[in-house]
From TrEMBL:
InterPro entries linked to this entry: Ig_E-set, MoCF_OxRdtse_dimer, OxRdtase_Mopterin-bd_dom, OxRdtase_Mopterin-bd_sf
Transmembrane segments: 63-87, 94-112, 118-141, 153-173
MF terms (GO), sorted A to Z: heme binding; molybdenum ion binding; molybdopterin cofactor binding; nitrate reductase [NAD(P)H] activity; sulfite oxidase activity
Claim: Repressor is one of the keywords in the record: no
EC number: 1.7.1.2
All residue ranges annotated as the Moybdenum cofactor oxidoreductase dimerisation domain in the record: 370-479
Name listed for the protein in its UniProt record: Nitrate reductase (NAD(P)H)
Domain Oxidoreductase molybdopterin-binding: 211-358
Keywords, comma-separated and alphabetical: Membrane, Oxidoreductase, Transmembrane, Transmembrane helix
Pfam families attached to this UniProt entry: Mo-co_dimer, Oxidored_molyb
């Protein structure tokens, strides 16, 4: 068999595999059901070596999720293509039957594993089996002379499906990228606002489609090592004493210069109050939080008792937006975003160290935020004028330790000036800092910022990538100073 023939045999299956993948993608995003696509995606991120995974994430940035989906679609394409290559000419009905059965049970198992309703499982299983196996059978059946019209029809059908599918997937992936949102709002001085407006609050989730929780059926359960398990709806949670708290949230995969950090005013109840109401039973190690998207993570029981740890149902004066975890999310000051579980459904008290979704993939377990400072203005690459007064400013954050002091260098770190600081809106919030600078020399200037936390520790200068403990290093930018004209 020459390579041309091989390609001719590979191609029809590949097309069917791709269409099947796109179909599953649509089921995920429209029906919100877990499919084999999600299972393969989840499994892949778990199997990838930690270093490679971190490198890929660093490279891809906000395109990471769309790229992961495209990669998974490519896998489906390859697998189905190879299947046709192997099966073609030797296809037996029983073999295809066995394949169908395998697929069917696999899909049902996935649906079961992901706790979806039986109807969804049956829908996904039957339609995907029909689509893949039917497609494989048609394209791999020996061509009959009388079947020319049929083949032409089939080709038209597959071609049209492919175009339609690619177009839909393209639109969907663009949306996905926009949903990993990281715009950087700045005020008239070029500084990040003290409280990030909702529209600019960063968004990160592992999902192709985030859960849409039906309030009528949603309940929060508190279970595990408790004397009085609880089951409460949102109204019951809202009727308990409410707490407002300004706190900064940062994703552990944020770079030192990165935009995945925002500050909000959260409204909710203390996790502590709810846990005590359930009467915890010793010995206790972790509090596990499970979510509607099969995400889970834990915080130590001792941390959960901190009055600053909230179950939030509101953000910036509004009901918690869907993308931020409606109806209920965890807010743990000073601990990276991944531990701030969204779309919570269950809280379990356990007597062991529970590894969350991202810990299973190599990220830090304690996830305490690093000392972090960032220059927001001027932007790197800006053109400035000799003698012109420039505001150099940005944010600094060290979680619950707070920021003691910030210094700025305009000569690449040779000399340093203390920055002015605004008092933070809360002990858990970033601070805004600035200096005014009048460049007196033409040429390139290298601006650097560094901060000290409340314990008097200096931000680590050594540059380390976000994985596994959060990025370190000093933020440096270069600006171009030109003579006055
Ligand atoms: N249920 C659930 N919670 C989750 C996640 C998720 O994928 N599923 N992602 C986490 C990560 S990695 C981060 S950085 C924060 C982001 O919260 P935000 O989108 O409200 O900024 O949510 C965390 N909580
Ligand atoms: Mo994150």
């Amino acid at each position: 068999m020459n390579s041309g023939q091989r390609l001719a045999r590979f191609a029809p299956g590949a097309v069917v595999g791709l269409l099947w993948g796109i179909f599953l993608l649509l089921v995920e995003s429209l029906v919100g059901a877990a499919t084999l696509l999600r299972a393969v995606l989840d499994a892949t991120t778990r199997i990838l070596p930690v270093g490679l995974f971190g490198w890929l994430l660093g490279r891809a940035e906000s395109a990471a999720k769309p790229l992961a989906v495209v990669g998974t679609l490519a896998m489906f394409t390859l697998v189905a293509g190879v299947l046709t290559l192997v099966l073609r000419g030797r296809a037996r009905t029983w073999l295809l039957g066995a394949l169908a059965l395998l697929l069917w049970s696999g899909t049902v198992w996935v649906a079961y594993e992901y706790g979806e309703a039986l109807t969804t499982a049956l829908f996904v299983a039957s339609s995907s089996t029909f689509f893949l196996v039917g497609g494989l059978w048609i394209v791999s059946a020996e061509a009959q002379p009388s079947s020319r019209t049929r083949r032409r029809l089939l080709r038209t059908f597959l071609g049209a499906g492919l175009v339609l599918g690619l177009a839909t997937a393209g639109r969907f992936l663009t949306g996905l990228r926009a949903r990993s949102r990281a715009p950087r709002a700045v005020d008239e001085r070029g500084l990040s606002p003290a409280i990030t407006p909702l529209a600019d609050f960063y968004v990160v989730s592992k999902n192709v489609a985030d859960p849409e929780v039906d309030l009528a059926r949603w309940r929060l359960r508190v279970i595990g090592r408790v004397r009085r398990p609880l089951e409460l709806d949102l109204a019951a949670l809202r009727s308990r004493p409410a707490v407002r708290m300004v706190s900064t949230l940062e994703c552990i995969s944020n770079d030192v210069w990165g935009p995945y950090i925002s500050t909000g005013e959260w409204i909710g109840l203390r996790l502590r109050d709810l846990l005590l109401e359930a009467e915890p039973v010793d010995p206790l190690v972790d509090v596990v939080l499970r979510a509607a998207d099969e995400y889970s993570d834990s915080i130590p029981f001792s941390v959960a008792l901190d009055p600053a740890v909230l179950l939030a149902y509101g953000l910036n004066g509004e009901s918690l937006p869907r993308e931020h975890g409606f109806p209920l999310r965890l807010v743990v000051p000073g601990i990276y975003g991944m531990k701030n579980v969204k779309w919570i459904t269950e809280i379990e008290l356990v007597d062991f160290d529970y590894l969350g979704y991202w810990q299973q993939r190599g990220w830090s377990d304690s996830a305490i935020v690093q000392i972090h400072s960032r220059i927001d203005t001027p932007r790197g690459g800006s053109v400035l004028t000799v003698g012109q007064e420039v505001l150099v400013g940005g944010i600094a954050f060290a979680g619950t330790r707070g920021i003691q002091r910030v210094e700025v260098s305009v000569d690449g770190g040779a000399t340093w000036r203390p920055a002015e600081m605004e008092s933070p809106l809360s002990p858990y919030s970033w601070v805004r800092w600035w200096i005014t600078w009048r460049p007196d020399q033409e040429g390139r200037a290298r601006l650097v910022v560094r901060a000290w936390d409340g314990d008097g520790r200096l931000q680590e200068e050594r540059e380390r990538p976000p994985l596994p403990d959060g990025a370190t290093g000093w933020h440096r930018i270069t600006v171009d100073v030109r003579a006055r004209t």
